[in-house]
Design a protein that fits this description.
260 residues, alpha+beta, Immunoglobulin-like, four-stranded antiparallel beta sheet, four-stranded mixed beta sheet, 5 helices, 30% strand
Length: 260
C-alpha cells in the first residue's frame, strides 16, 4: 500500500502544479494493474494490447494494460524505481512524441487511479538481468465535476515548476478547457492556425519549434505541444498562444512559468 499511496501522491502533486483537482485511489482495479505490471516485467516489453502468447498473460492483465500508462525499466543490479520516479517519467514522456502519458495524468476529468508494480528477472533474454514495470490506471468512465474549476487551460509547465520535469529541449504542452461538463465537448478546439510565442526577460523571443497539435482522445481531446530549447532555471518566461478557435471564435491565452 505505501507504493500505491506514493504513486497517487505524486500524481496529485503534479496535478496541483498545473491547477487541476486531485484523484483518489481506486483499489477495485488493483488486480488488473498488478497483473499488467507482471506481464510487462516478465516480457521486458510494453503493450497496451499484450498478446496471449506473452508470459503470464491473463485477461485481467490485458484489461489493466489497455486502460493504463505503462512504464518499463531494466538494469543490471535489480535496483528499483520509486513510485514517484515512475510517475515523473510518465509525465515527462521522454521520446514519446504524442505525450500520451502526460496527457492522461493531466486529464482534469480523471477522478481515480490505481497503481501496480512488479520487478524481477524477465522471462525473455533482452540483455538485461532485471526488469521492472509500473502501471498507472488513467482511463476511466467516471468524470469529475469541474463546474467550480476556475481554469480555462492546462499548461505544462506553468507557474513555479520543477526543472526536473522538463528536460532541456523536450516538449512543453497545453490544452484548452472550454467546456467543463464533459471532456468530449472540448474536442472541437481548432489549433490549425495557432501561434505560439515564448518570451524571456525584456521580451526577448525564445526559439519555438516542432509545433504539433491533436484532437484525439488522450486526456482532454485537444492538445498542443512545442519545443523551446535553451530555457534556464530561475528565469521567468511568458507563453502567448494565439488564434485558438472554438465554435468560430478566436481566443488568446497567456501565462508564465519559472523552472526551479
Amino acid at each position: 500500500m505505501p507504493a500505491r499511496n506514493a504513486a497517487m501522491a505524486r500524481v496529485n502533486e503534479i496535478r496541483a502544479m498545473v491547477g487541476i483537482p486531485p484523484v483518489v485511489y481506486d483499489a477495485t482495479h488493483d488486480n488488473q494493474v498488478q497483473q499488467a505490471a507482471l506481464v510487462m516485467a516478465a516480457n521486458a516489453s510494453l503493450s497496451h494490447t499484450p498478446p496471449k502468447n506473452w508470459w503470464c498473460w491473463t485477461q485481467a492483465a490485458y484489461d489493466g494494460a489497455s486502460t493504463s500508462n505503462l512504464h518499463l525499466g531494466m538494469n543490471t543490479d535489480g535496483s528499483l524505481a520509486s513510485p514517484a520516479a515512475v510517475v515523473d517519467a510518465l509525465a515527462i514522456d521522454m521520446n514519446v512524441e504524442s505525450l500520451g502519458h502526460r496527457r492522461w495524468i493531466l486529464d482534469p476529468f480523471l477522478t481515480r487511479t490505481s497503481y501496480g508494480f512488479v520487478h524481477g528477472k524477465p522471462k525473455v533474454n533482452v540483455g538485461w538481468p532485471y526488469s521492472y514495470s509500473g502501471v498507472l490506471r488513467v482511463i476511466d468512465n467516471l468524470y469529475a465535476n469541474l463546474s467550480g474549476l476556475a481554469l480555462d487551460y492546462i499548461a505544462y509547465p506553468v507557474g513555479k515548476f520543477p526543472a526536473s520535469l522538463l528536460p532541456n529541449g523536450w516538449y512543453l504542452s497545453f490544452s484548452v478547457l472550454m467546456d467543463k461538463s464533459s471532456p468530449w465537448n472540448n474536442q472541437s478546439v481548432n489549433y490549425s492556425g495557432v501561434s505560439v510565442k515564448v518570451t524571456g526577460p525584456g521580451g526577448s523571443n525564445m526559439p519555438v519549434s516542432s509545433v504539433k497539435y491533436a484532437n484525439d482522445g488522450m486526456g482532454i481531446p485537444n492538445h498542443l505541444q512545442w519545443k523551446c530549447p535553451g530555457l534556464k532555471v530561475g528565469t521567468q518566461y511568458t507563453v502567448t498562444i494565439g488564434n485558438v478557435k472554438f465554435k468560430g471564435t478566436s481566443h488568446q491565452f497567456q501565462y508564465t512559468f519559472i523552472l526551479q
